[in-house]
Amino acid sequence: MDSEILEEYYCIICSRIMIEPVLHISCNNSLCDECLNAMLVRDVNSVCPVCRGPFTSDTLTQNQALKNKIYSAIITCKCGKSIPATQYDSHIDTCPSHLASLSSTIQSIKKPSTSSVNRLTFTCPICYLPNLSQEALIKHSSSSHRGVSGVCPICASMPWGDPNYISSNLAGHLKLRHKYDVSTFTEFGQEDDDILQAVLAQSMYER
Fold this sequence. Notes:
By secondary structure, the chain is of the alpha+beta class. The protein has 9 helices and 7 strands; from the N terminus they run H-E-E-H-E-H-E-E-H-H-H-E-H-E-H-H. The chain folds into 2 domains: 3-77 and 82-89, 2-Layer Sandwich (Herpes Virus-1); 96-203, no CATH class. The strands form 3 sheets. The chain has a 3-stranded antiparallel β-sheet with strand order 2-1-3. Helix 6 runs antiparallel to helix 8.
């Protein structure tokens, strides 16, 4: 199937393909009911990470149309197997071809020392296209690598970043988490906790 279609099947919270998608009417994004329930158990006043709108009975509804599409979709893995969309995440968790690709990605990204970090340009972790600005990386991933997993080079360059953390849907992660350029307002000499507070404060304006 076309990987461009695949992106809408992913939960905005866990970036896994949704089995029971729930539509958040306020921003027209969907998440899986498992993530929604987990958030509400932790905090009944949880808000959407995209629009910051509340999760209430008036703003949430079962996304039956999307569920029907997911349950009828077949995805071709890079190993050549055709997998029902509902079983795709379980497949790639153990797929030798997928795991080998992830291992190669991890080995290719080395976190430099803070004093020499380049946060102006990035290399695509999928095809290794170099010298991409943050905006260019987001556009490139959306057009060329939808639904592909990989290590986010922007997160990996941050003081709190984990160069071994793999986003199962890198293009979706970039669009959701990097709408604004963190380097334009963050003082990287600050303590990690102070930087994170600055990031969270800025994100509240991204409504």
